[in-house]
Design goal:
- The strands form three sheets. The chain has an eight-stranded parallel beta sheet. It has a two-stranded antiparallel sheet with strand order 6-7. A two-stranded antiparallel ribbon has the order 9-10.
- The protein is α/β, with parallel strands linked by helices.
- α3 links the parallel β1 and β2.
- About 35% of the residues lie in helices and about 15% in strands.
Length: about 350
């Protein structure tokens, strides 16, 4: 075979035993999970704001950002639930470039997956300790779920993963909200089929085990825009798109119809400042139509301390080394404006 086996990595249970989640943080997670569940199931009218860096590249600056977010959360918690993005895996369109802290705990050094798995877990735990907020992460590698399954309150399944059988089946075993993004083609039926799959029980093989899942009723859709055959971005956050998603939900036997709008990626054409306008349009659509208000449960926003992005090794504290992000001041204003819509 053309594989070179470098080292055998510890199992999720081994890593969790070495770096346990203190019970007081587990209690925080249970409370946050219940709040988010109530939003997805329609019991709560609060609005989800999943916000943070494109990729969680540096523990100090990420936790600094989330501590700022926690102070803001205290001011808007009657209307919003702020969920920090701690995205420790970064999908790459061509496979080139920084792939996240799990690959490279230090973006300027060579990959080290053992150190990366530990760094991922430690950063998530530190974020809870310093902010009281449990986070969202993207499940790029299904076999890594167990390393942080006791920590996360929200999981995103990306546009390149949503058609993959292992992602769908693994999500069916989550006990937290899981957002299925539309594929890069924009085909909403693919996204909805993924939701259907994850909402139902399955038997499959996982990390060398035969397993069974019960299905995850909190699985829902995420609209992130599309790319057409000419390579042009096609947004799907407009009023007409939301009405179409409502219609498609009505044709399928799915629990708790729910959608989150990703304000960046192909919806903004990666023009990060457009996230402000897009979010406001989404909030306006919710005001116009009670059915859309019930369907759209939240937004995703890419935000960091400093706006824009830099190359790896750029040296600017709190500035993205992947996709460009809103800066803190603009993000803070936007969160207050979202709360005003509610």
């Amino acid at each position: 075979m053309s594989f070179t086996f470098i080292k055998h990595l510890p199992t999720p249970n081994q890593i969790r035993q070495e770096h346990p989640l203190p019970e007081r943080f587990a209690e925080i997670k249970r409370g946050r999970d219940a709040e988010i569940r109530d939003v997805i199931t329609g019991k709560s009218r609060k609005f989800l704001v999943i916000i943070g860096p494109c990729s969680a590249d540096n523990e100090d600056s990420v936790c600094d950002y989330i501590s700022r977010l926690a102070k803001l959360n205290d001011k808007v918690k009657d209307k919003l639930i702020l969920i920090p993005r701690i995205y420790t895996n970064k999908p790459r369109t061509t496979g080139e470039g920084y792939k996240g802290i799990v690959h490279q705990p230090d973006p300027e050094k060579k990959p080290d997956f053992l150190a990366g798995l530990i760094a991922m877990r430690k950063m998530h735990i530190r974020a809870i300790e310093e902010s009281g907020l449990t986070a969202a992460d993207e499940m790029l590698y299904p076999e890594n779920w167990g390393y942080i399954s006791d920590i996360l309150s929200y999981v995103a399944i990306g546009a390149r993963s949503v058609e993959d059988q292992q992602h769908r089946l693994t999500a069916s075993g989550f006990d937290v909200a899981a957002g299925m993004k539309n594929p890069t083609s924009g085909d909403m039926s693919v996204m909805l089929n993924s939701v259907y799959a994850a909402q139902h029980p399955h038997s499959f093989t996982y990390r060398g085990w035969e397993v069974e899942t019960t299905g995850n009723e909190l699985t829902h859709t995420v609209l992130r825009g599309a790319v057409n055959k000419h390579g042009n971005n096609v947004p799907n956050y407009h009023y007409e798109d939301l009405n179409l998603l409502l219609e498609l939900y009505g044709r399928m036997d799915l629990m708790h119809p729910a959608c989150v709008i990703d304000a960046n990626h192909s919806n903004s054409g990666k023009q990060f400042e457009q996230q402000i306008r897009i979010t406001k349009e989404v909030m306006h659509s919710r005001r116009l139509n009670p059915d859309i208000h019930s369907l759209v449960k939240g937004v995703m926003i890419e935000s960091y301390i400093e706006e824009g992005c830099q190359k790896v090794g750029g040296g600017i504290y709190g500035k993205s080394i992947t996709d460009p992000c809103l800066g803190w001041e603009a993000s803070e204003r936007l969160i207050y404006e979202i709360a005003e819509y509610e």
